[in-house]
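Pipeline run #58 for the internal structure catalog. This entry was flagged by the ingest filter as a single-chain record with no existing model, so it goes straight to prediction. Upstream metadata was stripped on purpose; only the residue string is passed forward. Reviewer on rotation: M.T. Logging verbosity set to normal.
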Amino acid sequence: MLKLRTDRGMQLARLAAFGLILSVGCGEPKPKVYRVHGEVTFKGKPVPKGNVFFDPDLSKGTSGKQGFASILDGKYDTAAADGDGIGKGAYVVRVQSYDGKPSDEYPFGNALTAEFVIKQSFEEDDNSFNISIPK
């Protein structure tokens, strides 16, 4: 009789462990992200160094994570190794631009302008979006 209880207990333990493994491995699927790339200029010239952030525009119903890309020699691409794509929808795009002349205090150099903010919608799988920061 003892052996029967032990076998049944082992079966139940295995079943519980299997269920736990399945529940951990079956989380929410990751949302699909898309590429945004382009050029960033200030006063008509390429921005040497900086960052572009794509914040979901909550006022337009867009949710999800923030996308980002580094600017180097006027170009950015969320598909680059140091970037992260975005979902489809409306975004608040924030641009930080620097002169690219690093110092001990400012690794990207001095700011060319205050953070530039613009709103934009993205609905394609591969979005080309050039940003011109006004004078």
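catalog note: The beta strands are 35-42, 45-46, 49-56, 67-72, 75-77, 89-98, 116-122, 126-128, 131-133.
catalog note: The longest helix spans residues 2-25.
status: ready for reviewer M.T.
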